[in-house]
Amino acid sequence: MDGAAWVAIVGAAVASAAGLAAWLQVRVMKEQTELQRQIHRDSQVPYVWVDFRIDPVHAWLVHLVIKNEGPTVATNVRVNFNPVVRREDVNSAFGELASLKAFTNGIASLPPGREMRWTLGSTVAIYNAGTLSRHRVEITHESAVGQHGPLVYELDFGDFPGASAQPQGSLKRIEAAIKKQTQAIASIAQEVRKEPDGD
């Protein structure tokens, strides 16, 4: 083999390597472009979740909470439970959750940040009656970019026993103490007004 043949072989190898490098660059650019498109799509999708939550002020109450944490409005929000979530020892004129419009027809819209709560009962009543157990949750909704879901996961009230159920910081106790002091001062003032003048 002469020198020209070697030069041609080396040139072909370099060209092949350059072609492979260009192909890899194009592939990486396509992946990056698709990733950017997916990030853009995800930034337009509502993020709707459902959970059992302890009341932030009255820690002995349990709520069913539905919230949209996403950046856009969720419409036609449908939440299904298996088994059905029931209330326990709640005096509600609206009846059971399964019969409420939000659960039979769906929620018309959940703007970003909206949170909806339904009281399920006291933690003690729910636990003693076994009202809540392990529930399969299925969430579907729509947005400007299409239909989403189903998002399926399990909620288990059995995870709660032993967990801290302290209310978040609030002014409720301070308000009660001020009210008690105000009543005491008013009572003293009334007694002072009743006393006859010592003249």
Question: Quick gist of this model?
Answer:
With about 200 residues, this protein is α+β, with helices and mostly antiparallel strands. The protein has helices at about 5-40, 100-105, 125-130, 170-195; strands at about 50-55, 60-70, 75-80, 105-110, 115-120, 135-145, 145-155.
Walk me through this protein's architecture.
With 199 residues, this protein is an alpha+beta fold. The protein has two domains: 1-42; 48-159, Immunoglobulin-like. It has four helices and seven strands; from the N terminus they run αβββαββαββα. A four-stranded antiparallel β-sheet has the order 4-3-6-7. A three-stranded antiparallel β-sheet has the order 1-2-5. The longest helix is centred in the N-terminal third of the chain and has 40 residues, at 3-42. The model has no long low-confidence stretch (mean pLDDT 83).
Features:
199 residues; alpha+beta; Immunoglobulin-like; three-stranded antiparallel beta sheet; 7 strands; 37% helix; 29% strand
Reconstruct the topology from this structure:
Layout: H1 3-42, E1 48-54, E2 61-68, E3 74-82, H2 101-104, E4 107-110, E5 115-122, H3 123-129, E6 134-143, E7 146-156, H4 172-194
Antiparallel strand pairs: 1-2, 2-5, 3-4, 3-6, 6-7
